[in-house]
Structures are given as structure tokens and as C-alpha cells.
Specification:
This protein folds into two domains: 115 residues, Aminotransferase class 4, branched-chain amino acid transferase, N-terminal domain (D-amino Acid Aminotransferase, Chain A, domain 1, 2-Layer Sandwich); 161 residues, D-amino Acid Aminotransferase, subunit A, domain 2 (D-amino Acid Aminotransferase, Chain A, domain 2), CATH 3.20.10. The protein starts with a strand and ends with a helix. The strands form two sheets. Strands 7, 8, 9, 10, 11, 12, 13, 14, 15 and 16 form a ten-stranded mixed beta sheet that branches. A six-stranded antiparallel beta sheet has the order 2-1-6-5-3-4. The longest helix has 15 residues. The protein is globular. Strand 8 and strand 9 form a beta hairpin. It contains eight helices and 16 strands. The protein is of the alpha+beta class.
Length: 285
């Protein structure tokens, strides 16, 4: 099965797809993106992802004069061309190309890129036993920035943090600021269970509002689990009864260890197991 790529509506095989080296997404990470996966061949929560893509573009002042229709059309056309049973979809909008320079006014027009690859599910063992995470202290203060709330292509801090975590044998890096406040994973949101309550860092910490994160709020409320957004410090994470990660590709993934410390009983807890089951039912509905 081959990966298909659409660039401004032109669909090609991955090997043939090219953008100019002067594209600002390539030069500066001056782009926004979304990752979507399919269930039963249909893109899940596509409306929510496209809405966030539009919001991210607005935060970066990337103009979309035709709105979301072109990128939505590209996604569906590329999915059809790829023909995978289940797909990974990455939709990207860059500011475009132009003379080299930081000034965003140098860009000509936004460029649309859609990548559709076969979806590779995570190992079932990870859901049965949980994964490990590694806490990485970054220079982030946990407060809002110019790009707070935008899913931008500038991911260098996350790339480096994940590299540190993988060197320690961990699945994911959890970013912690210098005041020991937990923010989010390199590519995930984080939840913990403490005394029967579900806790997660607030958006005011400068984190991205994940689509899966938002859906967990609704699933937890329906299941009768109280959910609270609050500032979480490192010590609270280490004393949690349960921890799990959320993201489009992970769904709801339980955490078994934080650095060298076991989480709770060392096995996925009842809340993470139930929420994962409910999430998958909703995704296939």
C-alpha cells in the first residue's frame, strides 16, 4: 500500500510529491497542521480537526480566503486515491513560498498539503500493560505565548524532548516547566486520576486543546467521573492512582511508569480502561 500526497489538489505518490525549498513551512516551521485517523475507513472527528486547523491558521495570521472547503476536498480525494482499509491523514497549510526572510509578508499564498498513509495501530500490549513516560524540564514557563493554542509546524522543543525520553527508554516525553508544573506530552495531552477524580492541566498552561482530550471530558461526564482542569505539579503526578495519555493516534493510552516510579498498581486502572472502551465505541458509531 502506497502513501499518497496532495499538494494544492494535485495527488501523487509520495516519491513524486515535492514542494519548493523556499516554502516557509520547510524553512521556518511557518505552518499549521492536523492529524486525523480513520475508523471503518471514515475520518474521525474531521469537523473538529478542520475547525482547529482554521483556528490555528487564524492565530498565525495565515489567510484562508476560500475557507476550509479546499483542504476538506483534498482530504477526501486523497483518501479515495489511497484506498487503504484504515488511514493516517496529515493535513498541512503553510504560509507559502517567497524570498528568504522572516517577514511573513514575503509569502506569496498559502500551500495545502495532505499526506495519507496506511494506518499502523499501536501494539495491543501497550494498552494491556501501559507505557512509560519521562519528565523533561523545558524552558517553557507554562504561560501563554504568541502561538498558544495553535497546532503549528514549529515543533523543535517537542522533538528534542521526545529524543531525551526515547534515550531513557520511555514512550513519551512529558514537558515540565522550571516551577515543576506539568504541561503536556510532546505529542499528547495528559490526564491523571487521584482520589477518584480525573485531573488534567488547564489550557491556561499554554497547552494545545487536543481533540481527544475534549472528547474524554464528555465521556467522563457521561460515565459519572468528575473532571477538573487544574495546575498539576510533578509531585502530584508521581502520586497519582492512574495516568493516561490522549491523542488522535493513541486514543487513550495508560501509563505504567513515570521515570523509574510505578504508577498505582502498575497496571492500567479502571477509569482509563473504561474510557478507552467508550472512546472506541464512539469512534466506530
Amino acid at each position: 500500500m502506497t502513501t499518497k500526497v496532495s499538494i494544492d489538489g494535485l495527488i501523487q505518490d509520495e516519491a513524486a510529491a515535492m514542494i519548493p525549498v523556499t516554502d516557509r513551512g520547510f524553512l521556518y516551521g511557518d505552518s499549521v497542521y492536523e492529524v486525523v485517523r480513520t475508523y471503518g475507513g471514515k475520518p474521525f472527528a474531521l469537523t473538529e480537526h478542520l475547525d482547529r486547523l482554521h483556528q490555528s491558521a487564524a492565530r498565525l495570521s495565515i489567510s484562508l480566503p476560500e475557507g476550509l472547503e479546499p483542504i476538506s476536498r483534498d482530504i477526501h480525494a486523497t483518501l479515495d486515491a489511497a484506498g487503504h482499509p484504515e488511514s493516517y491523514v496529515r493535513a498541512i497549510i503553510t504560509r507559502g513560498s517567497g524570498p528568504i526572510g522572516l517577514d511573513p509578508g514575503l509569502a506569496d499564498r498559502p500551500r495545502r498539503v495532505v499526506i495519507v498513509a496506511p494506518f499502523q495501530p499501536l501494539p495491543a500490549l501497550w494498552y494491556d500493560e501501559g507505557v512509560s513516560i519521562h519528565l523533561v524540564v523545558t524552558g517553557r514557563s507554562g504561560g501563554p505565548t504568541l502561538v498558544a493554542g495553535a497546532k503549528s509546524g514549529n515543533y523543535l522543543v517537542n522533538v528534542l524532548a521526545l529524543g531525551v525520553a526515547r534515550a531513557q527508554g520511555a514512550h513519551e516525553a512529558i514537558l515540565v516547566d522550571h516551577d515543576e508544573r506539568v504541561t503536556e506530552g510532546a505529542t499528547s495531552n495528559l490526564f491523571l486520576v487521584s482520589d477518584g477524580e480525573l485531573l488534567t492541566p488547564p489550557l491556561s498552561a499554554g497547552i494545545l486543546e487536543g481533540i481527544t482530550r475534549h472528547k474524554v471530558f464528555g465521556l467522563a461526564a457521561a460515565a459519572g467521573y468528575p473532571v477538573h482542569e487544574k495546575v498539576i505539579h510533578r509531585r502530584e503526578l508521581l502520586s497519582a492512582d492512574e495516568i493516561f495519555l490522549t491523542s488522535t493516534l493513541r486514543e487513550i493510552l495508560p501509563v505504567q511508569r513515570v521515570d523509574d516510579q510505578q504508577v498505582g498498581s502498575g497496571c492500567p486502572g479502571p477509569m482509563s480502561r473504561r474510557l478507552l472502551e467508550e472512546y472506541r465505541v464512539a469512534a466506530l458509531a
